[in-house]
Amino acid sequence: MTEPMIEAIDVVRVLGEGAWRVEALRGVNLSLRGGELTLLMGPSGSGKTTLLSVLGCILSPTRGTVRVLGRATNGARAEQLAQLRRRHVGFIFQSYHLFPTLTALENVRLVLDVRGERSRRARAKAGDALAAVGLSHKTRSFPRELSGGEQQRVAIARAIVGDASAILADEPTGALDSENGHAIMTVLAGIAKEPARAVFVVTHDPRIMPFADRIVRIEDGRIVGEERGPNADRARSAAHPG
């Protein structure tokens, strides 16, 4: 079994203080492995987004350990965590988070600019990422000129352009209709076939369950269940027909 791209071990995360203190995560153990699309499902307030933020090194655990490619983040300084995010984690959000004054290509290339990659090769990589999500014809378009589904595709291209080991998506289909949501999940499922990439999707949308290799359920900050997803069963049947 391969080493997890990201791993949470006995993670506790406390939010707020005093009367407002909430234990958002309560001893969570979870591994994200390459070649796998994992859905995290649970009701509002169950800790889904908090767990995504901890796995993505946006929040540090109050107790417990997070490992990125086997490296524990305990005690890491803010700039070290930022470097881990830039190098190893790609984020996708429900609201796209695109810069309105930048073209699709420039929005994607921005990730490489932050990493100091400003060569002609960086521009080519951004173009390749847009082509991978079916938007090679929209490189010069601004976000206002794109549909919601196209904007989310740009966000996906931005998440994958830096060769991130883990793609973390927070309700990526929440602002989309069924057709566009299906198209976005098809793209993410394709990315998850790469052995060197793990895809983790936080959602409350049961319509996207068929794309999952694994479904993890969370309630009140605890993992309460895990099951094989329909996509894992289809992949196994394809690998072993008859």
Approximate strand percentage: 25-35%
Side-by-side strand order of the widest sheet: 6-7-8-3-9-10
- Give a count of the beta strands, DSSP E runs of length 2 or more: 10
* H/E series: EEEHEEHEHHHEHEEEH
Q: What percent of residues adopt helix (DSSP H or I)?
A: 25-40%
Radius of gyration: 18 Å
Overall shape: it is globular
User: Which parts are unreliable, with pLDDT below 50 for 5 consecutive residues or more?
Assistant: none
Summed up, the helix count is 7
The overall pLDDT, averaged over residues, is: 91
Biggest β-sheet strands, sense, barrel = 6 strands, mixed
Give the N-to-C terminal Cα separation.
26 Å
| Structural class assignment | alpha/beta
Task: Give structural attributes.
6-stranded mixed β-sheet; alpha/beta; 242 residues; 4-stranded antiparallel β-sheet
Could you characterize the architecture of this molecule?
- With 242 residues, the protein is of the alpha/beta class.
- Helices cover 33% and strands 26% of the residues.
- A hairpin with a 2-residue loop joins strand 9 and strand 10.
- It is globular.
Write the layout of secondary structure elements.
Blueprint lengths: L5 E10 L6 E11 L3 E6 L6 H8 L7 E6 L2 E2 L5 H11 E5 L10 H11 L5 H13 L15 H13 L5 E5 L7 H14 L6 E6 L10 E6 L2 E7 L1 H10 L3
Parallel strand pairs: 3-8, 3-9, 6-7, 7-8
Antiparallel strand pairs: 1-2, 1-4, 4-5, 9-10
Helix pairs in contact: 3-4, 3-5, 4-5, 5-6
